[in-house]
Amino acid sequence: MEESKKINSICEGETTKNRNNDKELTDLDEVLKHELGEFGCFQLRNMVLVALPIVMSAFMSEYIFSSAAVSHRCRIPECGENNMFYDLKPDWILNAVPETSAGISSCQRFDPLNIGINGTLDYCPVSLFNKSIIVTCGTFVYAEDKTVVSDDDSPSLFKNIIQSPILLRRVCTTPMWWITATFVYYGLSINSTSLAGSKYLNYILISAIDIPGNFTSLLVLDKIGRKATLSIAFFFSAACNIAFVYVPKDVYGIRLAVFLLGKFGAAVTMTSTYLFTSELYPTQYRHSLLGFSSMVGRIGSIAAPLTPALMSYWHGIPSMMFGCMGILSGILVLTQPETLGMKMPNTLAEAEALGKSKSKNNK
C-alpha cells in the first residue's frame, strides 16, 4: 500500500509539473501578444532594416549568375597549341572540334589518332583525328582579349615585386605615407579635446578645417604636382606640430591657430596620398597595391587613439611624434617620381619608367 501511494504521489507530481509548464508556455504567449505586441510598424521596420544588407549581398552575388561565360574551346596540342591563348576559330578547327548549333563545342573534341605526325598552327589536317569518336577535353583555349583569364596565367604579384627593385621600393614607401597620414590626421582630431577652451568648439573647428584642406589639395595637385604637394604638406604639418609644443599654454589663440594649421596640412596629405599612390602603380596591380598600402596605413589610425595617454609623461610627446613622422614621410615622398602630366602606367615596365623622359605623355 505504501509503495502504491508513493507511485501515485510521483505521478501526481509529474502531472502538476506538466500543468505548470503548460501554464508557463501560455503565459509566454500572453507576454508576446499583449506586452510586446503583435506584428506591427516596429516589427516591420526592424525586418526591413535586417533585410537591406541581405538584399545588397544578393545584388553582388547576382553578377556570378548573370555574367556571360568566357569564350573557350578545347586545346589541340597535336596542332602546336601549347598554352591557353590562340585563335578561337582557326581555319582547321572543324577538323578537330565538333560543330554545334551555337558554333563549335566548348568542352569536346575529336579523339586523336596518335599516328606520330603532328600538324601546325597553320595546318592541322583531318587525318590526325577520329571523327567518329568524341571525347571530353581537360585543357582549353580562351579568347585572348579576356583579361581575367590572361591575368590568371600571369606571374604572381609577389614575384614581380621581388624581381623589380623600383616597384619594391615603392611598395615599402607608400605604406609609410599612409601610416603617417592616418596617424597624424586622426591623432590631431583625438587630441583636439586636450586644448584649452571649449572641447566641443575645438573639435568642431578641427573637423571644419578639413574642408579648406581638401579643396586646397584639389587646386594645388594639378598646379605644382603630386610630389611637391604631398611633400610640402607633410613638412608643413610636421613644422606646425613641432611648433605647437613650444607655444605657451596661456596663449590660447596662437596655440589653436597652430594646431588648426597642422590639421590643415594633414587633410591635404590624406587627399594627396590617395591620388599619388594610385598613379605610381601599373593598372594590373593598382588596386591590389593601393589596398595593401591603405591596409598597412591603418596601423596609424589604430595607434592614434593611444597618443593622449602619453601626455601623462610629457605634454609634447604626441605632437613631437606627429612632427617626426611627418618629416620622415616628407623625405620618402622625394624619393618617388613626379606623375603630373604622365600617362597612367598600364604595365610594370611603364611604371618603372615613370619620371624618365620617355614616359612623359599627355593623359
Give short descriptive properties of this protein.
single chain, 363 residues, mainly alpha, Growth Hormone, Chain: A, 2 domains, two-stranded antiparallel sheet, two-stranded antiparallel ribbon, 13 helices, 6% strand, flat, disordered C terminus
Structure description:
This protein is mainly alpha-helical and 363 residues long. The chain has 2 domains: 34-154, no CATH class; 157-355, Up-down Bundle (Growth Hormone, Chain: A), CATH 1.20.1250. The chain is built from 13 helices and 6 strands. It has helices spanning 2-35, 41-66, 93-96, 147-152, 157-163, 165-191, 199-208, 210-224, 226-246, 252-280, 286-303, 317-333, 348-352; strands at residues 72-74, 99-100, 103-104, 108-112, 129-136, 140-142. The strands form 3 sheets. It has a two-stranded antiparallel sheet. A two-stranded antiparallel ribbon has the order 2-3. β2 (99-100) and β3 (103-104) form a beta hairpin. α8 (210-224) packs across α10, α9 packs antiparallel against α12 and α10 (252-280) runs antiparallel to α11. The radius of gyration is 34 Å and the shape is flat. The N and C termini lie far apart (105 Å). Mean pLDDT is 81; it is low at 358-363. It is found in: Membrane. It is a multi-pass membrane protein. The chain crosses the membrane at residues 167-188, 200-221, 228-247, 253-277, 289-307, 313-334. This is Organic cation transporter protein-like. GO terms for molecular function: transmembrane transporter activity.
